């Protein structure tokens, strides 16, 4: 049998140690950079959660707002009042929101009182261009718009 002996010279060991230390330094820098990015990401997400600039909390957690009932009427908006026996609020502008539509607005984090009481022809044309004629007809008939549809048509209000 032949025995092989490895002989290391002192410069080979020094080179090996140098490479090992370099790799250790680079990996340390990579992990420090990843740690900093992680901390910045956590801080950004905390800001988004606390400040809620995009009003996402109501869509995620639902609406926990207590109803604003006073006596036999519940205030729905600036020009809207709803009787306790009625499920459709009367709006002074000639159209009404269904209870499901009001609940959808509240669940999206929108106060129903900010919805205008009348729809101008320009607004309706904007809604048709954003949602399509068939869907606008369905919503007018009482269908509940999805959150995506509401945010698509939000600029029309």
Describe this entry's structure for a reader.
The protein starts with 9 loop residues before the first helix and ends with a helix. It is rod-shaped, with a radius of gyration of 31 Å. The protein has six helices and four strands; from the N terminus they run H-H-E-E-E-E-H-H-H-H. Helix 4 crosses helix 5. A four-stranded antiparallel β-sheet has the order 1-2-3-4, with no helix packed on it. It is of the alpha+beta class and 157 residues long. Helices cover 52% and strands 7% of the residues. Mean pLDDT is 74; it is low at 65-94. It has two domains: 10-51; 61-156, no CATH class.
Key features of this structure:
157 residues, alpha+beta, four-stranded antiparallel sheet, 7% strand
Topology:
Blueprint: H1 10-51, H2 57-61, E1 69-70, E2 73-75, E3 80-83, E4 90-91, H3 99-107, H4 121-131, H5 133-140, H6 147-153
Antiparallel strand pairs: 1-2, 2-3, 3-4
Number of helices: 6
Poorly predicted regions? 65-94
Order of helices and strands: HHEEEEHHHH
Number of domains: 2
- Strand order across the biggest sheet? 1-2-3-4
Protein structure class:
alpha+beta
* SS strand fraction: 5-15%
Cα-to-Cα separation, first versus last residue? 91 Å
Number of strands: 4
Query: Which percent bin holds the helix content?
Result: 40-55%
- Radius of gyration in whole Å, from Cα? 31 Å
Tell me about the biggest sheet? 4 strands, antiparallel
